[in-house]
Design a protein that fits this description.
Strand content: under 5%
Helix content: over 70%
Structural class: mainly alpha
Shape: flat
Number of helices: 5
Distance between the termini: 41 Å
Largest sheet: none
Length: 103
C-alpha cells in the first residue's frame, strides 16, 4: 500500500523531484516527461497529471543547463501532438456510443 501511495505522490509532485530525476536517470528523463505530457493530453482519465508544472520546472532546469532546451521543446511538442491525436481518436471511437446511450 505504501508503494502505491508513494508512487502517486511522486507523480503528483514530480516538479519537486525533477532535479533528482535528471541526476539519476539522465536522458531517460525526457521519456518520463514525454509520458506525463502524452498521458495528460491523450487520455480523458488522466487530466490530474501535472503537465504544465513539469514543463515549467523542466524549463527552469534547462535554463540552468541541466537539460537541453531544444530536446525539451521537441519532446514536449511531440508528446502533446500525439496525445491530442490519441484523444481525438478515442473520442471519435466512443463519443457517439456514449451520446446514443443517453437518448
Amino acid at each position: 500500500m505504501d508503494i502505491s501511495i508513494n508512487f502517486i505522490s511522486g507523480i503528483m509532485h514530480i516538479d519537486k523531484y525533477l532535479t533528482l530525476i535528471v541526476q539519476q536517470y539522465g536522458i531517460l528523463t525526457y521519456l518520463i516527461l514525454f509520458s506525463i505530457i502524452f498521458l495528460e493530453t491523450g487520455l480523458v482519465i488522466t487530466p490530474f497529471l501535472p503537465g504544465d508544472t513539469v514543463l515549467f520546472a523542466a524549463g527552469a532546469l534547462a535554463g540552468i543547463g541541466s537539460m537541453n532546451i531544444f530536446t525539451l521543446i521537441v519532446v514536449g511538442y511531440f508528446a502533446s501532438l500525439l496525445g491530442d491525436i490519441a484523444n481525438y481518436y478515442i473520442g471519435r471511437m466512443i463519443g457517439n456510443k456514449i451520446l446514443e446511450k443517453e437518448k
